[in-house]
Amino acid sequence: MTVFGRAENTRTAERGWNYKESFRLFMLPNLEFLDVSYNELEYISNGIRNARSLNYFIVEGNLLYVLPCGILKIPLKRLKVENNFLHPFFWKEIKQLQPQRLGDMAALCFVQNNLRKRYPGIPEDIQKQLDSCGTCDCCLGPLYGQGLGFLRPYRNIYGLRLPYLFSACSPACYMNYIT
Ligand SMILES: [Zn+2]
Questions:
Q1: Helices 124-131 and 102-112, axial angle in degrees (round to 10)
Q2: Phi and psi dihedrals of 70, rounded to 5?
Q3: Where does residue 7 rank: exposed (0-12), middle (13-18), buried (19+ CB within 10 A)?
Q4: Residue 56 has pLDDT above 90, yes or no
Q5: Going by C-beta distance under 8 Å and a sequence separation of 6 or more, which residues neighbour residue 178?
Q6: Dihedral sign from CA coordinates of 157, 163, 167, 173
Q7: CA of 22 to the centre of ligand 1 (A)
Q8: How many angstroms is it from 149 CA to the middle of ligand 1?
Q9: DSSP letter at 179?
């Protein structure tokens, strides 16, 4: 399957590409070629890690400062990224870690310490929050909220160093991953 994208229909004012729409696109099992060049995209969902058949991904001419680390997990033959903001000149600004939300840190602490057994009667809204987690890019454990986002450069098959965005579940996990 080949998709040439104009992202107008799936854009949000906030991020440039609706998370749910792009996530659904990346779930297509036969998606092999995706061209979303020149769409003013500021963000590519890490759901791209699910696009296991994707061979060609063209994202040139957008507003990207980082690429999602999920790209590293798929066997791309061609990745076109020219005319974005991926140059090392911009990395210093992105490298600064943003603090995690207290509620997200508390949820992680609750789950990691298996406190459900100790406190079985927790309110439904808290239970919902505990169940709505993603996956940590570093330890593959639960990730609440945005996690600790950080940039790691990796060389692609052509020797080009590109910045990838990872989300760690906690400061300890982040430290463990980078050392
Ligand atoms: Zn983690």
A1: 80
A2: -60, -25
A3: middle
A4: yes
A5: 150, 152
A6: positive
A7: 24
A8: 11
A9: -
In the numeric block, the tokens 């991020």 are attached to 15
**Residues in Cβ contact with 116 at an 8 Å cutoff, skipping those fewer than 6 apart:** 110, 122, 130
Domain 1-86 class, CATH top level: alpha beta
Secondary element (H or E) of residue 25: helix 19-26
Token pair 């870690």 in the structure block, residue: 97
pLDDT tens string 63-97: 999 999 999 999 899 999 999 999 999 888 776 77
Domain extents in the chain: 1-86, 87-179
What is the helix, strand, coil percentage profile of the chain, to 5?
30, 20, 50
Which stretch of DSSP H or E encloses residue 40? Answer: none
Q: Separation of 48 CA from ligand 1 center, angstroms?
A: 19
Residues measured by CB to lie within 5 Å of ligand 1, the ion: 136, 138-139, 141, 169, 173
Model pTM? 0.81
What stretches of the chain adopt beta strand conformation (E)?
A: 2-4, 33-35, 56-58, 67-68, 78-80, 134-135, 142-143, 148-155, 161-168
Structure tokens at 94: 């992105």
| Helix-then-strand count for the chain, H and E | 5, 9
